[in-house]
Amino acid sequence: MPDRPVQIALFETTPRIEALDAGVARLAAFADTAALRAFIADVAAVAPFRHMAVKGGRRMAVAMTNAGRFGWLSDRDGYRYSDADPETGRPWPALPEALLAVADAASRAAGFAPFAPDACLIGRYEAGAGLGLHQDRDEGDLAHPIVSVSVGAAASFILGGLRRDAPTRRIRVEDGDVIVWGGESRLRFHGVAPLRPRPDGATVRYNLSFRRVAV
Ligand code: MD3
Ligand code: FE
User: Fold this and answer.
1) What are the pLDDT digits (tens) for 146-205?
2) Which terminal residue of the chain has fewer beta carbons within 10 Å of its beta carbon, N or C?
3) Which atom of ligand 1 is least distant from the CA of 125?
4) Residue 191 Cα, ligand 1 centroid: separation in angstroms?
5) pTM assigned to the model
6) Does residue 3 have a pLDDT over 80?
């Protein structure tokens, strides 16, 4: 990865915090998305975005890559975290201190414990791409929240309950929004509605989700 240390804080120090649900907080316009875009480009130069396969053999609509010690993978065998990119055999690009600080500051601002993520899954959503309802439960210690950062086009996040058939609500997420998901919402089903094409054609959204995988 290019050596481009970022010294400035990448987050708002006096965030607007909104409680959206039990254990779910939104920090509106919390993250500096220009710096995040540079980070995403650096990661993708080493670990390119790819449409991973799922169990039935179909490919996901969202293109993904990872940074940090562990990266999330899906293939015909299922989901798992791995310390190497199967496309290259190389470790995933490192998570810079400035980004670790964003995730930690968001966790604390939302009322959770200090947070030291060791994985960052980056998703790229183009027009029409969405993410079906699922749970994130492969991380070692589910007491840690997940911190997600939205970059680019707005999207509707779908938040369900602890059972797949529970009612869902939609949460609009915009460029720079950080959402912290933890506590009793950590295992809720969730997804992303297919991105509506924007009239200017510039329909792309990135999502970075910071996770703690190792216990
Ligand atoms: C909500 N990504 O990659 S952020 C994912 O916007 C994923 O790209 C979404 O769901 C996106 O797995 C959402 C992350 C997230 C993670 C765990 C959650 C949201 C969550 C657990 C409970 C509720
Ligand atoms: Fe998820």
Assistant:
1) 999 999 999 999 999 999 999 999 999 999 999 999 999 999 999 999 999 888 877 899
2) C
3) 8
4) 7
5) 0.95
6) no
pLDDT, tens only, 81-118: 999 999 999 999 999 999 999 999 999 999 999 999 99
Write out residues with Cβ below 6 Å of ligand 1: 121, 123, 131, 136, 146, 148, 157, 181, 185-186, 188, 190, 192, 207, 209
How remote is the CA of residue 76 from the centroid of ligand 1, in Å? 21
8 A C-beta contact, residue 76 and residue 63: no
**Looking at domain 16-211, does it have CATH number 2.60.120.590?**
yes
Best of 26, 124, 207, 210 to mutate for ligand 1, by most ligand atoms within 8 A of CB?
207
